[in-house]
Amino acid sequence: MNICVCMKQVPDTNEIKVDPETHTLIRKGVPSIVNPFDTYAQEVGVRLKEQLGGKLIVISMGPEQAKEAIKSCLAVGADNGYLISSRSFGGSDTLATSYILSEAIKAVEEKEGLKFDLILCGKQATDGDTAQVGPEIAEHLDLPQITYALDIVEKDGEIQVKREHDAGYDMISTKLPAVVTVVKLPYEPRYPTIKSKMAAKKKEIPVLTEEDIPSIQLELCGLNGSPTRVKKTYTPVREKSGVKLAGMEPKDAANEVVKLLEEAKLL
Amino acid sequence: MDFKRDELHQDILDMVHDFAVNEVKPLAAEIDKTEEFPMENVKKMAEMGLMGIPFPEEYGGAGMDTLAYIQTVEELSKYCGTTGVIVSAHTSLCCTPIYQFGTEEQKQKYLPKLCSGEWIGAFALTEANAGTDASGQKTVAVDKGDHWVLNGSKIFITNAGVADVFFVLAMTDKSLGTKGISAFIVEKGFPGFSIGKLEDKMGIRASSTCELVFEDCIVPKENLVGELGKGFKYAMMTLDGGRVGIAAQALGIAEGAIEETVKYVQERTQFGRRISQFQNTQFELAQMQANTEAAKLLVYQAACAKDDHEPFSHKAAMAKLVASRNASDVTRRCLQLYGGYGYTKDYPIERMMRDAKITEIYEGTSEVQMMVIAGWMGVK
Amino acid sequence: MGNLNDYKNIWVFIETECGKAKNVGYELLHVARPLADQKGCPLVAVVIGKDIEGVAKDAVCYGADSAIIVDGPEYEYYTTDAFTKAMVTLVEKYKPETLMIGATNNGRDMGPRVSCRLKTGLTADCTGIDIDEETGNIAWTRPTFGGNLMATIMCPEHRPQMGTVRPGVFKKGAYDEGRSGEIVKEEIHVAPEEIRTNLVERVNEVAEAVNLEEAEIIVSGGRGVGSAENFKLLEELAAELGATVGCSRAVVDAGWMPHAHQVGQSGKTVAPKLYFAIGISGAIQHLAGISGSDRVIAVNKDEDAPIFDVADYGIVGNLNEVVPALTAAFKARKA
Description:
heterotrimer, A: alpha/beta, Rossmann fold, nine-stranded mixed beta sheet, 15 strands, B: alpha+beta, Butyryl-Coa Dehydrogenase, subunit A, domain 1, Butyryl-CoA Dehydrogenase, subunit A, domain 2, 3 domains, four-stranded antiparallel beta sheet
């Protein structure tokens, strides 16, 4: 099974703080990581590859520094990686991004001399949180999609995907090729080894620009190809002054809160 | 000074950091409480190649240097002193002497399985009456022609309860003093060998520190390491390297304590201000940071000297002396900044303080380090 | 894209499964109603499913002016291919100016598929919807960067303007039985071979579906609860109050509670009357999910925990003592 994993390098949102004075995001010093959901996509891809053979290729759209993220995927089982990077791709919203990625996927198939059976994405990137690029890639490539996957198994040339729903999961099958977006897995992504890390380090990451993707239409890329516009951004301000009971006996504090709730007609 | 911190060192460090934060840190408080050896994490580290970092690939090692290994112990110890010493004792005290003094057959037999982490290693020198005075070995090994017979016991052996391979020192000829001590490789299943009681310790509580008991323990002839009567010398040379590992553990504990405290003082408010805004807090942390950086230079210097095959006993002793005292000092002062909360087990700082103390004691007390340093200085 | 002025009306997609509507569709009708009034355009509910005429009527009672329904056995359970085809066909025929979809798993599966086929813009997982005064465009507001940043997004030159909207952020309006509106039935059918995925089985893991979004009272626990066993204390309080038990992400990560109970940025957004935050420090990701609560009651041993900044009533103390005391106090009140 040949697998393409679409990966995004994101700032570690757990490390992002808001400047208490200016109410802006402090991005300085925030480490870049592989989007956590993509690490699950990569892991389930590697397991399928180990089981069934084939190649696993990682592609990522982003600046030069995203090569580091691609290398960390190579260190945990990807065979090759491509960086999709060009000035013309900057400012893309999800529609343009998914268009570029879908064209890049075709170009990579050409270069690698293979056809992908499965395209895997994380459910969403933790910086944008849109969850749109995966389904849009499927649409551009006219492939079936299964989103919110909790696990993927292969069965008789098809895949069966455990798809999350409110009270449990649906088991959904589809023929290949297909696009699957992954939420979480029953297992954690593997860690690299010192040896795999060293091997990944030495590997060249080819960069694909519009020149390497012959079929691409530039008017569908970047800002030109993006129907949405960001009007403004701001940090949420929360202010509330409530009653805080400190240093009281638990029983008295509890009774006090019940009394206050009653007085406020909340019960 | 060039500490050879190239990109590869940084990559390994990043990898160990991710592992330490995601797997080691969440378990630290629990294993401190239960004393349960973190076997699952050790197996994961084994898969990552962390149980044989400074050994050549032909013996199953990662082919990296002492510095990479030392930085790994440091990084693990930031979040869990126990996990740091498990790797350090296994690598420095069991794999290293086999690699350095063992025969080719011994290396082929033991190193690949130790480096892959399939086997865990331990080192057995200390006895009830032979601590700092390690020459007073009471464990004896008698030559029975085609095998050795060991009798005696060892105490305070790190990793003992889970180890598969032990580097054991025993007296082969009492009349020769330290020159009558020899080294043996003892496997877990050898007849007459058993593990005694688990120590209930103040810190590094999950490192499986136990007693070893040898009752007519039969050790194959070929398991004598190196030359007869050279055991004490091998042990002392091994401890030189081990001290760099413990110094790295101490360094990591101090760094971890500072990291936690910096976070805490920015969250906690008293008198209407974050306690980080008080100058006392700033000065305390600044001093601790500076001292810790100084310790780090000594630790890395010792590691690099070992890599460059320079004499490094005195450098290792200085690194351990300074880093371990700093770890105790820093954790104590950090706890003070926490105040009452720091004294509870809801925060990691009291555990770090307990873990720090041992670094001033094992693999040579601070006093032993000063003896080594004074000797090197020619102050006799 | 044709003339933008050809696109009129605000559409709300009412998601159904097995003939039953999910609440978020009705919530969207309530938030879209004033927008439609402001624009002076009709508000249309779009229902795709099986045996859904009743749902269409309900949608009118919840504020829609009219409804379009696509009914058929192929829509009993959601599939990407069938629902996308039906929705795209409708949009191409009727040309709505705006299309709102609940940001459920299915909504976020279908939304991008539809917007991509129509080559228009889609804003994901919105928590605020307004009309931009200057341009008359819909201004979609959504949290990003893990809830640390809010972004307002518009789709100025493409139609329809599409957004998925997070369930639980807005409340349902009153059900007005007196309302009536036209219900148009569209016959759109999808052949089985056009549906490329197959539902093999549905597995319900939670004994009863956890319905945090609609709970009036939620008792939620965080890392401070300490263990899975200790959630017993919260369950006792919840039982006393008839509340639903929720939790923070740390609790799910620790394996103390299943994901279905998680409240916050990567879990459910809730809007109860009372939200008890027990041993929850109040990370911004968690606060993002509870801002719709009428009143927040916090119990935490750390008096500086950020949860107290948003709490209406806070008790500083050991939750192992405070929670049983609360349970007892509520019990005493009833007696």
